[in-house]
Amino acid sequence: MVELTSKRWLSIPNLWNKFASRSIRGSLVVWVTLLLGAVLLFFAVVLYETNRRLTIERIESELRSFGFSVLANGRFGNRFPTTDGGNRGDRDRHGRDGFERDRPIGEPGPPGTNPPERNPLEAGREAGNPPQLLLADQIPLEQPERRNDRNGPNPRGGGRNDFPPGEPFQRNGGPPDFDRRGPPERMYFFIRREDTGEIIDRSFDLPEDALAPFPESKLRGPAAIHDPTQSRSVNGRWEVKIFDPSRSRSIVVGRWIQREWDDLQRLLLRTGLIALLSLIIGIAGTWLLARRVLSPLDDISKTVDKLTASTLNQRIDVAPLKTELQALAEVLNATFDRLQAGFERQVRFTSDASHELRTPIAVVLAQTEHALARERSAQEYRQALSACGRSASRMRTLVESLLALARADSGRLQLNCQPIDLLPVVEHAIESIKPKAETSQLKLAAQLTSATVFGDAVFLGQVVTNLLNNAIEYNAPEGMIFVTLTSDTDSARISVVDTGRGMSAEERSHLFERFFRADAARSASGSTGHGLGLAICREIVELHGGKIDVSTELGRGSTFCVVLPLYREEAAEVSTEVAADPELNNSLTSSE
Asked: Where is there biased composition of kind Pro residues (predicted)?
């Protein structure tokens, strides 16, 4: 069970989830490691494969040249590969061609032929030429006993017949690299066969497994002429089979390639070590780079983590950050500004709501205690109950207003919108408020035109009613209220103008905030409302896609203006699912 659990923990998805997916730094390091590893692996494979192919092509070219020369001449003195990679040419090393090769070295040939040759070994010593590969049939009969440099007499002996044709020699008397450990890497061997499989000739030191036939070639006729070769690798050797269609025979030539394979293995090992070292350096560099790049994010995280209700004024230092992180820090600082402002509004809202609720409750308790302190007359009880009723009504209005604002904030203040004409809506609001204006000895005038908008008639009527109530409450004695309804190409405009005392610029900036109340001295009754009416008006107007504003000047009255978009059928979004909440209507009607 423990083993299975450990294997499950070590699985690639679990490692990814524990390391890379939870850390930007870890994810960056993992992806760079994978990418760099893939690139290094690709180049290592390409390098190794290219060298391997070039090595094989060089060996095959060498063996094919040797094999074709043998097939063309029937013996091994012609075009045998030399140590410098060249070929002997069509003539042998003594300048003889054709059957002239059977003439013993040093004897004159027929008239007109080449003069007697000197011993090639003697000539090479005098000319200072480097040693070349020789074949058994090219060694002079009078050659002295050959030695292997520091190894004493050649173990194979000194006679010509001790070295079969096709086996190359150096001047030291042995095959190339004979004094190295292991098989002589550049020792060639061959085997000639008839098409029937009968062996015609073979090397003296031919490896036993070289007698194994090649897979049957499918090349016959013209195809065999264009490509008459096959090749294979067997036990550290490379062998090439060449088929001669004209003579119905073939030859297999080969050589040891252990040195080349060792070189390739060393190349592969060096490449792997370099790739591993590069990968380690890349991982370390990526980790350090990621740490350096992400360190500003750590600073930002620490700053954000310190923010509490009492430290909302802290901000991220933008100056030392890079351009991209500066944008992020500025966005976060702006978010913190809004958060602080909202939190302060919430604190002020809660404080004001508590204060407003405490006042009517205190009135109810005071009237009740006063009435119960001793026996009262019916008239006194009636007055006490009337005061309690007024306080309860005021408290109900406040609670319903708070409920309306809470629903607006949460997006649950739903409207029953449809195309409506604002003319009857404004006229109805004016008629409902006219008795209150007459009681306050105010003149009320209107200039109205028809304008169709897409909205809720009940809520828009309450907005107009609230604005008229404010105009009556804060107007001058025997003042005037003027209401207009106009429209242009895009919008409808409702304006309510009063001749009151106006407001200062500071008061105007807070006018639509919740629980903001103007100076009671400007009120005709000397009292103020809850300070929620205009805040609710703004919420309703904005839900209709419009805006509300005020222009005022101290001592010269105020003008409230509501702008709503005109109704267009293609842009209308009719909502008939939810009707207006009657409790909200009551709260809006009584809000000031």
From this structure: 107-118
442's tokens: 């105010």
With tokens 């550290």, the residue in question is 236
| pLDDT tens for each residue of 36-88 | 999 999 999 999 999 999 988 888 888 888 888 777 765 544 333 433 344 43
Closest C-alpha among 369, 387, 280 to residue 32: 280
The domain made up of 323-409 is a member of CATH 1.10.287.130: yes
**Is the pTM here over 0.90, yes or no?**
no
Nearest to 531 by CA among 343, 344, 345, 339: 345
Q: What CA–CA distance (Å, rounded) separates 523 from 470?
A: 9
Write the CATH number of the domain with boundaries 415-565.
3.30.565.10
Q: Are 40 and 279 in contact (CB under 8 A)?
A: yes
Confidence of residue 519 (pLDDT cuts 50, 70, 90): low
Q: Is 486 left (phi over 0), alpha (psi -120 to 50) or beta?
A: beta
In terms of Cα–Cα distance, which of 435, 488, 423 is closest to 460? 423
Which amino acid, one-letter code, is at 188?
Y
Identify the DSSP state of 16.
I
DSSP element (H, E) containing 131: none
- The ranges assigned to domains in the chain are 12-76+181-213+225-297, 323-409, 415-565
For residue 142, give Cα distances in angstroms to 97, 121, 124, 189.
Answer: 22, 11, 16, 26
Average pLDDT over residues 395-411: 74
Q: 147 to each of 131, 135, 164, 172, 484, how far by Cα in Å?
A: 14, 16, 18, 6, 128
Q: What's the CA gap between 381 and 564, in Å, rounded?
A: 50
Q: Which two tokens stand for residue 422?
A: 């604002």
Q: Could you tell me which of 549, 516, 519 has the C-alpha nearest to residue 532?
A: 516
Could you give the CA distance from residue 246 to residue 327 in angstroms, rounded to a whole number? 83
> How far is 391 from 385, CA to CA, in rounded Å?
10
Distance CA 96, CA 137 (A): 13
Q: In which element (H, E) is residue 532 found?
A: none
Quote the DSSP letter at residue 64: H
